[in-house]
Design brief:
Blueprint lengths: L12 H17 L7 E8 L5 E10 L2 E9 L8 H15 L4 E7 L4 H6 L3 E6 L8 E8 L5 E2 L2
Parallel strand pairs: 3-4
Antiparallel strand pairs: 1-2, 2-3, 4-6, 5-6, 6-7
Length: about 150
């Protein structure tokens, strides 16, 4: 059998959905469907300007924070903490087991550690690419943060 690999630059959502189905269908048969649920949080200042935002999705009872951004003029004022705290609150309300995310070494590792996140993995700095660090926070059965 000959297989040809090509780059699909169309951005066709149907193609992405088909690939997701290839992955999801066997997992669903094993009782672990993916069924991602999106979460988007927006922080707006008193003048109605965007102060920051968070995009995430939950799958397999974990919330994955894809992006957490705070406008430069709002940094240091607690916007990021408030966004992440709200995401954690929603995750608990949804019965999730925890939150995970990643950051680069030059971004916010100390920020996440200060909020009780524990490092669980790294991609090494290599060839000029910075180190990428993965963090997680688990919740105990009562819904509060756990220390795993």
């Amino acid at each position: 059998m000959t297989i040809e690999i090509t780059v699909d630059e169309s951005g066709d959502p149907e193609f992405a959905a088909t690939v997701e189905a290839i992955v999801d269908e066997p997992a669903a048969r094993m009782g672990h469907p993916f069924d991602p649920v999106p979460l988007h949080l927006k922080a707006v200042d008193g003048d109605g300007r965007l102060a920051g935002g968070l995009t995430a999705h939950s799958v397999q009872r974990w919330l994955f924070v894809k992006l957490l951004g705070v406008a430069e003029d709002q940094r240091g004022g607690g916007v990021g903490r408030k966004l992440l705290a709200r995401a954690e609150e929603i995750a608990r309300e949804r019965g999730l087991v925890g939150v995970y995310l990643d950051t680069f070494e030059f971004q916010a590792p100390r920020f996440y550690e200060s909020l009780g996140y524990t490092e669980f993995g790294r991609l090494p700095a290599h060839g000029g690419a910075p180190q990428r660090i993965w963090f997680a926070k688990t919740f105990d059965l009562a819904g509060s943060a756990g220390a795993q």
